[in-house]
Write a structure and sequence with these properties.
This protein is α/β, with parallel strands linked by helices. The chain has two domains: 169 residues, Quinone Oxidoreductase, Chain A, domain 1, CATH 3.90.180.10; 125 residues, NAD(P)-binding Rossmann-like Domain (Rossmann fold). The protein contains eight helices and 16 strands. Strands 1, 4, 5, 6, 7, 8, 15 and 16 form an eight-stranded mixed sheet that branches. The protein has a six-stranded parallel sheet with strand order 11-10-9-12-13-14, with helices on both faces. It has a two-stranded antiparallel sheet with strand order 2-3. The protein is globular and about 60 Å long.
């Protein structure tokens, strides 16, 4: 099943898959770590909601870089993993069942992100704590809501709560065509900041349409020779890009990193600050994302749709990083 916690198929440990009265759902899952081809599509037991939880009938689930890193076994916590495992962290759907003690009703359209460190949204149903999900804004499709859930949560926490970006400041956002960075560009403009971003020439017009004030073609230009005196950097790329980002900060500047592992890289200069956004889950945070979209401050990204049985193809594209916007599974 698809739920919070260990990400295990919990129902499988409680009853036999073919037991009388038990139903099954379709899911994309893995039975070992490895490349995209380890992803399988098939039947797994339906989830059961515990007290304080709801079962969500998933309409859409998005693909994030964390998903293929999970599939490949790149996280330390995987030493204790028991298979099968379902990837995925964010979703949109409809409440189909309740474990009791919740303030959501059957039929409510909701969207959200699983608890930190949990996987399990590539499926038709998932069980999740009601307190960390929110009602989907009316007028926002399930596909768009899924595309904006984790990206929005990450961008808002990184820029507003972690970097504390202020009106009039200048921020460099690395990898502007990606899902998180695309949301961050729009949110930074909403906060009143000047936005510089890096992307390929093919995506230059796209990031400008999101509000970027200055666009740097990372294939032809070295951003460290063009950009300086930034108040903040938000890095979604990692690797050498993350390490080089400190060079563009003004004294006292701060940088936030989401693609460099559990901890931010250490600054190579003493007068700047490196931060790793915690991205806590809460209903209030999801409502903040929903409000930004409903108000028009942020628009949904470009989206490429897949079916659940195309999970391997989606992971190949995600891992290549040669796309813009978001990849989303239309589950039902």
């Amino acid at each position: 099943m698809c739920r919070k916690g260990s990400g295990r198929v919990r129902a499988a440990s409680q009853h036999t898959v073919h037991g009388e009265g038990r139903t099954q759902m379709k899911a994309a899952f893995i039975e070992q770590f490895g490349g995209p081809d380890v992803l399988k599509y098939g039947d797994l037991p339906d989830p059961v909601a515990a007290p304080g939880e709801v079962v969500v009938d998933v309409v859409a689930a998005s693909v994030n870089a964390a998903d293929w890193k999970f599939r490949a076994g790149q996280y330390a916590r995987h030493a204790q993993v028991k298979f099968p495992q379902i990837p995925g962290r964010d979703f949109s759907g409809v409440v189909g069942a309740s474990g009791g003690g919740v303030d959501l009703a059957i039929g409510d359209a909701v969207f959200g992100v699983l608890d930190a460190g949990r996987e399990g949204t590539y499926c038709e149903k998932l069980a999740i704590k009601a307190a960390i999900i929110a009602k989907k804004p009316e007028g926002l499709s399930h596909v768009n809501a899924a595309a904006l859930a984790l990206t929005g949560l990450t961008a808002v926490n990184s820029l507003e709560d972690t970097l504390k970006l202020k009106r009039g400041e200048t921020i460099l956002i690395q990898g502007g065509a990606g899902g998180v960075a695309g949301f961050a560009i729009q949110f930074a403009k909403h906060l009143g900041a000047r936005v510089i971003t890096t992307t390929s020439a093919a995506n230059a017009d796209y990031v400008r349409s999101l509000g970027a004030d200055q666009v740097i073609d990372y294939n032809k230009q070295d951003f460290t020779k063009i950009v300086s005196n930034c108040d903040a950097v938000f890095d979604t790329v990692g690797g050498d890009v993350a390490e080089k980002s400190f060079a563009v900060l003004k004294p006292g500047g701060r940088a936030a990193f989401i693609a460099s592992g559990a901890e931010a890289p250490k600054p190579n200069r003493p007068d700047v600050t490196a931060l790793r956004p915690p991205v806590p889950r809460s209903r209030a945070a999801m409502q903040r994302v929903g409000q930004l979209v409903a108000s028009g401050a942020v628009r949904p990204p470009e989206i490429k749709l897949y079916r659940l049985d195309q999970a391997a193809d989606a992971h190949r594209l995600s891992e290549s990083r040669h796309f813009r916007g978001k990849l989303v599974f239309l589950v039902r």
